Queue: 2 jobs
Job 1
Amino acid sequence: MSPSTFPIDPPAGRVPGTVWGGPSLRRLWPSDGPAVEAFFLRLDPDTRASRFMAAMNDRTIAAYATQAMTAPGLVVGVFVDGTLRALGELRPYGLGRTDARTGEVALTVERGFRRSGLGSRLLRRLAEAARNHGVAELRLRCLPHNAPMRRLVAGLGAEVRLTEGESEGAIRLARATPLSLWREGFEVALDFSLAVAALPLPAPLPAPLPLPFLRRAA
């Protein structure tokens, strides 16, 4: 496999984390748990199978959504008109590993909101967070017939290899820079403000997700 280096930097002149007049991408917090559960439960059977590489019933989906908000890593989402329509997850690569320089990314876009660049936006945001916390490589896995994901990964220059009935690609990440660290800090502050604004009152403030496998780059 020949991993590629992912171009993280956004186009010049664009405010980090925002798209004026378009979908809103932000980090998800434990207070977003109900929106995450509703998102996964809305997924049609084919999308569920593509995301989890197996058939999933509602009970299993709901249980996964609950633990996803407290598991090690980072979760980001895209809201369209106030409803979560796309979700990206960054996790440590490999079962039981909590201090790795390799991360695994999973992307899910609801049917009807695809082919609009949401997957690329999710991946860019997760890649920058991983880069800033010392992760050197991202892995993405999907079913062989998941053509959109394979095109996304291949479009970044990564070689997609079929192993044990799965397609896997690897993306090399550049080292963190002062600009990338500043940009992430700006986005986290903006995300927190947007999350608080979306909370019904009265409600507890969101708490940060644990990132034990990620460490801030030196």
Note: Residues 23-198 form a domain with the Aminopeptidase fold (CATH 3.40.630.30).
Job 2
Amino acid sequence: MRSPGLFPSTSTYSNLNHLLWPAKGLGIPSSILDNIPWFLWFIWKARNDKLFNGTDTSPLDTVRVEARLRVMGACAPDNWRLAQIVHKAHDDEELLPQTSTQPLGPRCSFDASWHQDDALFGGGMVLTDKDGVKTFGSFTSNRGLTPLHAELQALLWAMKSTLQLNHLGMTFETDCQRLVKIIEDEKEEDWPSLMVEFEEFHYLHSMFNSCSLCFIPRSCNVRADDLAKGARARGLIFSHVNSRLPCWMAQTNHMEFF
């Protein structure tokens, strides 16, 4: 893909400009150029993992993930555009059947608070054990592409938190119907930008003796929603799990919900 005098150069902007536009006119096959955005995407994710989680991702691992997506056909233009759509949270989602009975055994409701103008998103959870004792959790992390990304990351965080608390059987509850449908209908391949998160989901799922995800109405998820919004409003990265509400939450007007 070398173009003497044009690519590669010492300018990052010039290199990207060449890869995304002029290279096609120079005869570089589309089968190669179409993969460039995916490589950039996973390089960016690896950079964030290193910066915020201390996780090292080798160049070979980046190539392997991209290759898996290509085999699945995830690099098709339609799927790339689909992955970039910023969905309005909870809008235009079809209603799922609702049940009036609470699940037996421990349950954990979770929610995410995402806004396109904020650098961080917030997550919250309320874990209720078999004896009715509650544990509250909240966290913030770097904002993902869409509200759906935030909801899935909130689920992953809730799963990790419950495992750390030694709960090996759990029903996770969310008011995000889209997330439930994607997992229930096994439509994960339609969301290539979430491939890494879904792989982590299946890994965490395998660590439970029993684990399920179900939909609850938004009106039944007010507690987790308040924790998520309160976390995002703090504007800093943190994680909190405790049987007591965090002091910043206890001072809000939402105590009546608890």
Note: Residues 12-75 form one domain.
